[in-house]
Design a protein that fits this description.
This protein has 18 helices and 10 strands. The protein is an alpha/beta fold. It has 2 domains: about 325 residues, ABC transporter transmembrane region fold, CATH 1.20.1560.10; about 240 residues, P-loop containing nucleotide triphosphate hydrolases (Rossmann fold, 3-Layer(aba) Sandwich). The strands form 2 sheets. The protein has a 6-stranded mixed beta sheet with strand order 6-7-8-3-9-10, with helices on both faces.
């Protein structure tokens, strides 16, 4: 039985439901969030590295601004026609070289000091978002595309690293450098230099911000096209067997080509607008440089400036314009990084539906008889359906087997999800060993229940890794015993690599029946007190199914079983059969009792026996 079409009530907004365009960012709020992320990054010597990096940035900027002043003074010590360099010139020249060296090497030292912090922050962002995505509801994961989600986590985590580097170590220090440079111009040269530089900076900044804001829609369109193309490609790779079966390679490639065409158009718009921005920035900077050159010429002509002052002015100008050009780059990239973070922020805003309550506790130790499960007036209404479960009541006694049967859409899947606490009831409660599932820690609950679904999902790993996934610390002998119990022993012995055989993407190297048996072995290794079988033998042939059913009858001893079945012949020996119809329990009893009643179950039985 597939879960693909079962919705749920009280739906939280999924990442797909949050429009990136609707996300509103506050710069300072976002930077505060980023700061908290850095502080919990667990980088080695975090505080020492942060302080050291900031000190190195300031030292580098001060050295870079003061070096032109020192060189100008050195040149001013020279006498026209002098044949011997004075000690003052040599000392100032060496000081200039030393300051230039410090200004050049400080960023490299800062990079070495801060890289462990930035990488730890990136990793923390990725891990937290990944962990949060795994905690989200089934509805979220059924509606998302794996490729898009992976791309969201990757781009968002990398954006955090860029924002830290750009804002803390580029934007802030650049502003400091500009203030220092203009202060030097006013005190050491001419106030007109500072005025011209300030006017150039203001015009440049306003122009950069305006054009960059206009470019945001292009960048957002580029990201959406990129995610759409990635989602299509990953989805196709995961479902390539279905594509080949229906001869859909052409239309699948066509859909991917359409997505890539949209990406190419968006990339062209983004690059064209970037070229326009760069050209406008170059125009403003060169106009400012020309204006300052005229000011310098007037100063020389009027005798208010010396040759060394001209050198200082030129070096200061180039020193100002270099970070100014980086200011534009950093602003663009910071805004783009915020866009890259939009989907990750939206993903983090999705609230998990199933969480541990404040009073949640572990299950008591399991008894040798198995678990007791009670559905007590349980109601659940799906968003996308006109009906759900209504006042469902039944009890599964410890150590017994209860089967859920009924037509499609009767509520069997919803009942299983409620028993696994993949959903919470909207009315009533589900009890396990006397405790409401909401009062049990999820980790404890998951260790007490094992599910064998109709379509077993396997990892692209070895047979051993897939079976031992239920209990990674289990001894090899127990893993092998679980495989034998699931009738896998002979199959494993026939493989050249035995348990080390890779099963392929989603286990596609195995047949459907083999995947089902691996799922059963995995559930048996978990040694649960409640075993849930959702059409667990539906993909097996007759002889194998009979063998597995015999095995399941043996392993049911000491545990409780909840079985969902369409083929009634597989549950005739169940201790209790609960018949669901339109979300309500219409009958309950043993196979023979229900046949004698000649009700809903008997009608289903007659229909199936006639078909066979």
């Amino acid at each position: 039985m597939s879960y693909a079409h079962a919705g749920h009530g009280r739906r939280e907004p999924s990442a797909g439901a949050v429009s990136p365009a609707a996300m509103k960012f506050s710069f300072w709020t976002s930077m505060a969030d980023l700061g908290r992320l850095v502080m919990r990054s667990s980088a080695p010597n975090l505080r020492t590295r942060l302080v050291s990096a900031l000190v190195l940035v300031i030292i580098g900027k001060v050295a870079g601004v003061w070096a032109p002043v020192v060189l100008g003074r050195a040149i001013n010590t020279l006498s026209p026609g002098g044949a011997i360099l004075g000690a003052g010139f040599v000392g100032l020249a060496l000081a200039f070289a030393a300051l230039r060296l410090v200004g050049a090497c400080a960023p490299y030292a800062r990079e070495a000091v801060f890289t462990p912090v930035s990488q730890a922050t990136l990793a923390r962002a990725a891990v937290e978002t990944f962990a949060h995505s795994l905690a989200l509801s089934l509805d979220f994961h059924q509606s998302k595309q794996s490729g898009s989600l992976a791309r969201t986590i990757d781009r968002g985590s990398r954006a955090t690293d860029f924002l830290i580097r750009s804002v803390v170590f580029n934007l802030g220090p650049t502003a400091v450098e500009l203030v220092l440079a203009m202060a030097v111009m006013v005190t050491q040269l001419d106030w007109r230099f500072a005025l011209t530089a300030a006017a150039t900076i203001v015009v440049y900044t306003l122009l950069t911000f305006r054009i960059t804001d206009w470019r945001l829609s292009h960048r957002r369109e580029l990201n959406e096209s990129d995610s759409r193309a990635a989602g299509l490609s990953v989805d196709a790779m995961l479902n390539f067997e279905t594509i080949k079966t229906f001869g859909a390679e052409g239309r699948t490639v066509g859909a991917y080509a359409g997505a890539m065409g949209a990406y190419a158009n968006a990339a062209a718009k983004a690059n064209t607008s970037l070229s326009l921005l760069n050209a406008a920035q170059a125009l403003i900077l060169n106009i400012g440089l020309a204006a300052m050159t005229v000011v310098a010429g007037l100063g020389v002509a009027g005798g208010t400036m010396r040759i060394g002052d001209i050198t200082t002015a030129v070096l200061l100008l180039t020193g100002i314009f270099a970070p100014l050009s980086m200011l534009g780059f950093n602003y663009r990239e910071i805004r783009q990084a915020f866009i890259d973070m939009e989907q990750m922020v939206a993903l983090a805003a999705v609230k998990p539906e199933i969480v541990d309550s404040a009073k949640a506790r572990d299950l008591p130790p399991a008894s040798e008889l198995g678990a007791e499960v009670v559905f007590e007036n349980v109601g659940y209404q799906h968003d996308a359906r006109s009906q759900g479960l209504r006042d469902v009541c039944f009890r599964i006694a410890p150590g017994t087997t209860t089967a859920l049967v009924g037509p499609s859409g009767a509520g069997k899947t919803t009942a299983v999800r409620l028993a696994l606490r993949l959903l919470d009831p909207q009315s009533g409660r589900v009890m396990l060993d006397g405790l409401d599932l909401k009062d049990i820690r999820r980790q404890s609950l998951r260790q007490a229940i094992a599910l064998v679904p109709q379509d077993v999902a396997l990892f692209n790993d070895t047979l051993y890794a897939n079976i031992s996934f239920a209990r990674p610390d289990a001894p090899q002998s127990e893993v092998r015993a679980a495989a034998e119990a699931a009738e896998l022993g002979q199959f494993i012995d026939s493989l050249p690599q035995g348990m080390a055989t890779l099963v392929g993407e989603r286990g596609l190297k195995l047949s459907g029946g083999e995947r089902q048996r691996v799922g059963i072995a995995r559930a048996l290794l978990a040694n649960p007190r409640l075993l849930v079988l959702d059409e667990a033998t539906s993909a097996l042939d007759g002889p194998t199914e009979a063998a597995i059913q015999a095995t399941l009858r043996k392993v049911k001893a000491g545990r409780t079983s909840l079985v969902v079945a369409h083929r009634l012949s597989t549950i005739v020996d169940a201790d209790q059969i609960v018949v669901l119809r339109r979300g309500k329990v219409v009958e309950a009893g043993r196979h023979s009792e229900l046949l004698d009643r000649a009700g809903e179950y008997a009608a289903l039985w007659r229909r199936q026996t006639r078909e066979t």
